[in-house]
Amino acid sequence: MSVVRDLRVLLRFQGFRRLLGIRLLSQGADGVYQVALATYVVFSPEKQTSAAGIASAMAVLLLPYSLVGPFAGVLLDRWRRRQVFLHGNLLRAFLACVTAVLMLSHVPDWLFYASALCVTAVNRFVLAGLSASLPRVVDPERLVIANSLSPTAGTLGATAGGAVALGVRLLTVDSNAVVVLLAAGVYLCAALAALRIPPDSLGPDRHPVRPRLWATLLDTARGLAAGMRHLSEPPRREAAWALASMTLMRFCYGALTVMVLMLCRYAWSSDSEDGLALLGLAVGVSGAGFFAAALVTPSVAGRLGPARWIAVCAVGAAVLEPALALPFAVTPMLAAAFVLGLTTQGAKIATDTIVQFAVDDGFRGRIFSVYDVLFNVAFVGAAAVAALLLPADGRSVPLVVTVAVIYAAVAVAMARFAQQ
Fold it and tell me: Could you tell me which of 412, 235, 259 has the C-alpha nearest to residue 325?
């Protein structure tokens, strides 16, 4: 298989191997941690979760990225990225332990959400740093392949981590706190893996003197403005269009995620443990779609171009999503999860590639952080819309139709841009 051959070629680069190891461990821990949060918030028997409750939880956890994300980008363009991986994962290991203690202590919800927010906030630095570092460990000719395999491998690592967490939760111990402690251990392994990379090998190129706090805040605002101006320049138009399209597709994915959560919790099973098992199956099928995207994207995007491939992914989602989702039955919805995994990840690989080629290295960190902000704001917005449209059991024809229309609009916009 070509993907195996491509992976063998990339693994000859020592820097890529080590960066991939950090990604797999970091995102694997993310998968474990996120499943623990989902089971605690949505599938705890004592909680009667609604779509509005899920939306509120997502807002608490994700909206602050609107503030953290831009600052993360400017700091990533200042800090040594290897040190971000080391200290960021050490900090997440500690904070995950705090989350486990709070779960066992039955504290107010806001305190639990604050702890979870801190863990996921650090995640923005790590993931943005991984994307910004990739061009430093592979040559330009192999960057498209690396963009296909590396983030997809991380997504599969997160899926595998989620599967392990579900297995631990369902088969061994009925404790979300134990699962969170497992995530803390994997975060610690990711930090140790970062020690294998030389501190200065991942950039950025310039190393400014650390200024005072207010000077840092002012420089952050200026740096963000400079990054947006950089993105608005004519040579970067493709990156701007790709980011806008990916944001809308993320919105669609978020709305359907909330719908599947509600279906698993209330429509497809009356037992919270059975609903959790169904959610795990849906996550696994979606992960298979991510893997399929890694297989097909390098060759197809190479022939069509990344922008046209985004349009093709959006067309596929626009057509197949309503056809499979509207019955609101388990089997067709699992097929929809595979399709959405394939199309969403395929579009993301193409977007990553466009941004990395179009954006200069000195701006790459802040642009990828803005990318993360757009991702999370879109997901929270989708959860809010889903809360308005979803009934108690999760079945909503208007939501499915709305998502299909958005996918179609993305397809038309990207197809027109690709023809220019």
Answer: 259
Residue 12 sits in a domain whose CATH number is 1.20.1250.20
Number of structural domains found in the chain: 1
Range of the domain at 285: 2-419
User: Which band of pLDDT confidence, cut at 50, 70 and 90, is reported for residue 211?
Assistant: low
pLDDT in tens, 250-296: 999 989 988 988 888 788 877 767 777 888 788 889 888 988 988 88
Phi-psi label, residue 120: left if phi above 0, alpha if psi -120 to 50, beta otherwise: alpha
Which residues are within 8 A (CB) of 165 and not within 5 positions of it... i.e. 6 or more apart? 31, 32, 35, 36, 179, 182, 183
ω into residue 204 within 30 of 0, thus cis?
yes
